[in-house]
Design brief:
Aminopeptidase, 7-stranded mixed beta sheet, 368 residues, 2 domains, single chain
């Protein structure tokens, strides 16, 4: 792997004043000791996800060059909360504080409500101080005081069965039929191999062009696989000598996240997408994992939203929240923004030699 991942640093560790009478102090992440404490806290606290973890945040920081302003909360010298936070300087939207860019989840992870509110107050202060247009917390559940709910996104998580044999009844009837047809009629085969990451990224970039969306740079994929090691799964599906689909998934605790998928639309093949997700489900069950997290979809993105529901997953509105400093307006970087309509009409017709580097460059300004 080629990407070099930098460890998060800040210049000092001057704690903020305790919040009210709570005894909570807020600190930056400033060295390897505080970095390890942050990682341990995420790995051992209910609600912690891959996206709260320094492995994700440091890869984002290294690849996209966003500034780290991560916050830790302590009470009586003990770590009681974390808020991974990155400053995005967007050519399209100005300064944004996001927890966390390119991730399904993020936001505040804490022992209790007092700690959560203390971290939120400090994050909002930073948004004011840094001239940010908005502060975005991608929490699975919201409830932070002083912030605006953003109910545009739904998450899709479902427990996995205990045995591979039970997967035959795990999917709804039509989804099962699509997997069976892909395997029997299309003669699809699956392979899990990290060496196939370049192939997966090329398929992903092709699919993003077809969907009129920007692709992330290969360095991001490469950096995540380098950082995560065995917790990153690279999967491809083949039809004879042709590779028809690829998927990069991540494993954290007992959850598998199938995250970046791509399909070669030039090859006529029914059910390749269903088949590759099912292959990862099988691997997850064999590996003793307990949950399959299909990620998020915008509620108005009917294709993605319906596909996940048709796989038997129930949509749950995510608790995303925003804080907008006084006198500022929140940016709209969603594909529905009329400003992007012409670009989205043209994008699928551009050559991949152009959309790949241009998409990678734009991704720095559109934090996913």
């Amino acid at each position: 792997m080629s990407a070099t991942i930098a460890t998060t640093t800040t210049t000092t560790e001057t704690p903020r004043q305790p919040v009210a009478a709570s005894g909570v102090t807020i600190h930056p992440v400033h060295n390897e000791t505080t970095r390890r404490a942050w990682a341990d806290y995420v790995e051992n606290t209910p609600g912690g996800t891959l996206f709260h973890h320094p492995d994700w945040c440091e890869t984002v920081q290294a690849v996209f060059n966003h500034d780290a302003v991560h916050l830790l909360a302590k009470r009586e010298g003990r770590l009681v909360g974390v808020l991974p936070l990155l400053e995005v300087r967007s050519i399209l939207a100005g300064t944004l504080l996001v927890s966390v860019p390119y991730g399904t989840y993020g936001g505040i992870l804490s022992d209790d409500e007092t700690v959560r509110q203390a971290l939120a107050v400090e994050a909002m202060r930073l948004a004011d101080q840094r001239g940010a247009r908005s502060l975005e917390l991608r929490s699975a559940t919201g409830g932070v005081q002083g912030m605006i709910d953003d109910e545009r996104y739904a998450g899709f998580v479902r427990p996995l069965p205990l045995r591979v044999e039970e997967l035959s009844n795990y999917l709804p009837r039509k989804a099962r039929a699509a997997v069976r047809q892909a395997q029997q009629r299309e003669n699809l085969t699956v392979q899990h191999d990290a060496a196939l990451l370049p192939t997966v990224w090329k398929l992903y970039a092709r699919s993003m062009r077809r969907l009129a969306s920007i692709n992330y740079p290969y360095r991001f994929f490469d950096g995540l696989v380098e950082r995560l090691g065995r917790r990153a799964w690279v999967t491809v599906v083949r039809q004879g000598g042709d590779t028809v689909a690829g998927l990069l998934s991540f494993v954290f605790r007992d959850v598998v996240y199938p995250y970046f998928v791509g399909v070669d639309e030039r090859i006529r093949c029914t059910g390749a997408t269903n088949f590759i997700y099912f292959a990862v489900m099988e691997r997850a069950v064999r590996s003793g994992l307990h949950h399959f997290d299909f990620g998020r979809s915008r509620k108005d993105n009917t294709g993605s939203y319906r596909f996940k529901k048709n796989q038997g997953f129930e949509a749950q509105t995510l608790g995303y929240q925003r804080y907008v400093p006084a006198g500022r307006t929140p940016p709209d970087l969603t594909p529905n923004n009329p400003r992007f309509s012409l670009a989205r009409r043209v994008w699928p017709w551009l050559p991949l030699a152009l959309t790949k580097p241009l998409g990678a460059w734009l991704a720095r300004s559109i934090p996913g």
